[in-house]
Amino acid sequence: MNEKESKHSPSNESGGAIRVMIVGDTGTVGHRAAAILEGEPDINIVTTAPNGTAASIRLRRAAIDVVILDIGLPKRDGLKTLPKLLEIEPDVMVVMVSTLTFSNVKTSMEGLLAGAAEYLPIPLATRKKEKDKKEAEFRRELLEKVRTLGAPRKVSRNKQRAPLKIERDHKPDKLIPKAPRGPIKLRQPSKIKPEIIVFGSSTGGPKALFSSLAGLPKSLKQPILITQHMPPTFTTILAQNIAKSSGRACREAQDGEEIIGGNIYLAPGDFHMVVENRGGKMILRLNTDPPINFCRPAVDPMFTSAAKAYGNAVLAVILTGMGADGRNGAKDIVEAGGTVITQDEKTSVVWGMPAAAAEAG
Asked: What pLDDT shows up at residue 106?
């Protein structure tokens, strides 16, 4: 991608649209992202930049809600660019995009822990049927992430700035609900000492997980189960990073293994992780049942199975993430007598999953 801004100029202000900057010099990343976002009435590609230096200059010039960043740029320029962008605009939402290689996955995990909101791998399927399916999934996920992450930024920006002239008509965004937030009524926590702690998280989750696990006492003996919305390979690296940062044994769960106190078990990418009580022995099972809430692994089946296996001795934590995954499972946990904690709106990258459970009571 070149440095020209004539097509996506900062002067093309669209006050009613989510404003996007694409950073990357490869046609694979930049062109595919642009092809999906262009023509969407509620999204405006304000500018493009071939590298980190140009991106920093343009972020200072234009109001940007979401940055699409090619994390696979040469010489780790994508990863070096991330903190510079967040220093210029701490609240800008950065979605990292790259081809799915082990090197890019490791770099992307560093980016998530450094403050990027989300990562999205570009599909490289060769068979037409598989390629069409993966392209459709990539399109859906990219649009969902840009809209969900950009909407709060757009609202905040428009409150702070004078109304901007809109040069073309934009249809109302019907994909992002505008329902007012209802009052949240807190439940009393269970007086039963939990026998297991279960975490559910998505967008912004890795950083929130690290913070949450770091705050747990070293003397804690309960096993911890985690479902984080992530594809394969990512969960392998996440487990390694959790083990290193928390000082606790952490690995991807294996089908049929017994749950041991003090250990952390992470749902592997593309597998639901559930608990099974086998004659009083708690076992982890993995399955490839259909995605739930577009996700596999999903939080709901883990929560529901934990409630069934452990009854009122479950403590559940729902961290930042888009969507409503975890809400139905949380209902099962509280009905069994367990306790659910949700992250608050102020500290969440996306107050979707926590809000869904909290507002459902």
From this structure: 87
